[in-house]
Amino acid sequence: MKDSNKEISFAATGDSFITRRLSKQDFDPQVAALIGSADFRFTNLEITLHRNEGYPSALSGGTWAMADPEVLNDLKKYHFNSMTWANNHTLDYLYEGLQATECNLDKADIVHAGVGENLAAASSPKYVDCDSGRIALIGATSTFHDFWRAGEQRADMQGRPGINPLRYSTKYQVTSKNMTILREIAGSTDINAENNLAIKEGFSTDSDLFKFGSYTFTIGEQEGMVREPHPEDLQRMTKAIHEGKRQADYVIVSIHCHEMNKDQKDQAPDFLEAIARHCIDEGAHAVIGHGPHILRGVEIYKNRPIFYSLGNFIFQNDTVQKLPSDFYEQYNLPATATVGEALDKRSQNNTKGLGVNKAVWESVIPFWEMREGVLTSLKFYPIELGFGLPRYQRGWPKITTNEEVLKSLEELSKQYGTEFVIKDGMAEVILN
């Protein structure tokens, strides 16, 4: 019988966008040893795993993400025992790509969450059994194309494969003076013609809010954008957390979120903060965020950690082997163009984009311990992914002694009142 009072350890990473095989030279045993020393060992898989079983979608997460299923063997060298894969790439290769990825994850004997054959399967907790206890893992994403949402089962209709969605509503608040101007512009441009007709014909409902094309405006003294979690998705997340609490010692929630605060990619959006705190309120023991490919701040909320983004763990989005015609057309390239030429065009020969953003190529691995649901220690170990190397070499994690990334995390976390002690290439959170 497992001791419920025993301390349990956790290690987590951000996105694993892996498209190449791992060589001995690229493998850092220190990284593997750190992750392997934890009971719960997590990464977010941001790639589909198959050999062209799926048709490329007309819409993607940016890069159509596909890798050979064998890369799972390389991920397992880092000792991961759990993954989520609900993100903006899950349906890059439509349902066939999703189903092939799920099949390969099952064959690899990896606990995975956030995606399924219907909404119930995608949103339900999955369980990691380890020597120190049982952990429930719930995965979801706020960044997706709408048709990627998993569908609910009915007695008379099967559900739809897809991701566990975390939708949000967006309203733009303006003064009454600016609202008058918006209404005048709408009237002179007919931007609302289709929506007005839909209301008349019963395909849409009228509202006190003002629609300006696809955007919703309301009057308020303070102008700005306000986003709120979708109540149905929040309720489903709550139900999953409660179920996880019944069936496991700990509940971990993973959220993929590219959305940001204004134009600041390193700042979490308002709705993500609301969702993360709600998850803790309902019983989750940690919230692991990822998505923007850079770090965001850390909050200790009710003695439990919220990582708003852990950045990248493995990042190789520019060494995919194949891309559909849509990608080449986007950059006005001929049918004879190669993958390398297309990626050069996108990055303007590695002078713009993620490849030249140093923050994309450095991150941290948090290692934390909990006893009886309370955080007892939390440490961060910095990693670097080869900034400045050719794209076919960079992207693998290695432990670094450079404390600049820790200082950056400390600065990002000040808004949440989180304090660190940085020493000997490691940062430890000061717990009250």
Describe the model.
The structure is a single chain. The chain is an alpha/beta fold and 432 residues long. The protein folds into two domains: 8-155 and 232-317 and 353-429, Purple Acid Phosphatase, chain A, domain 2 (4-Layer Sandwich), CATH 3.60.21; 168-227, no CATH class. It contains eleven helices and 24 strands. The chain has helices at residues 29-36, 71-76, 94-107, 119-123, 176-189, 193-200, 231-247, 270-281, 325-330, 339-347, 404-413, and strands spanning 8-17, 40-45, 48-49, 66-67, 82-84, 111-113, 115-116, 126-130, 133-141, 162-163, 168-174, 210-212, 215-219, 224-229, 250-256, 286-290, 298-301, 304-307, 312-315, 362-371, 374-384, 398-399, 420-423, 426-429. Helix 8 links the parallel strand 15 (250-256) and strand 16. The chain is globular and about 65 Å long. It starts with 7 loop residues before the first strand and ends with a strand.
Compact overview of the structure:
By secondary structure, the protein is of the alpha/beta class. The protein contains 11 helices and 24 strands.
- The coarse silhouette is globular
Quick one: how many beta strands?
24
Radius of gyration from the alpha-carbon trace, in angstroms: 22 Å
What is the CATH superfamily classification of the largest domain? Metallo-dependent phosphatases
Terminal Cα span: 32 Å
- How large is the count of helical segments? 11
Main sheet record: 10 strands, mixed
Share of residues in helices: 25-40%
Structural class by SSE content: alpha/beta
Reading off the top of the CATH hierarchy, the class of the largest domain is best stated as Alpha Beta
Contiguous low-pLDDT stretches (5 residues minimum) are none
